[in-house]
Amino acid sequence: MATFTHDHVHLRSPDPEGTAQYYERMFGAEVLRSMQQGKPRVDLDLCGLKVFIAQVEPDGKTGAAPTSPYLGLDHIGLTVSGIDAAVAELKAKGAEFTMEPTTIRPNVRIAFLRGPQNVSIELIDRNAA
Known about the structure:
This protein is of the alpha/beta class. The chain is 17% helix and 43% strand. It has two domains: 58 residues, Signal recognition particle alu RNA binding heterodimer, srp9/1 (2-Layer Sandwich); 56 residues, 2,3-Dihydroxybiphenyl 1,2-Dioxygenase, domain 1 (Roll), CATH 3.10.180.
């Protein structure tokens, strides 16, 4: 069988720069700016995951973001240690949580927040006390 590894996640945004700044401010993502076919391009290194952010034109051809839960790719998951402190830090930065930290099984706590364009982001602490 072939071997596969992850390459990237692709987001669409009416404001790629604003979206990138959110991930940088909240999670310490590295913003990577370049030019592609003569147009500015904004990408991220989010905890080692490449995230491409594509500009959405205001022409009405791009559908609205879905509301979780829905079929298909549902959320981005990020591992964190000390989830309660991390949630408090993110709230202080203005993050909007859709699920407060919850223990789902022994030593595993999760929380969900809403990112730009309604992207659902899960925080998971697999070593919670």
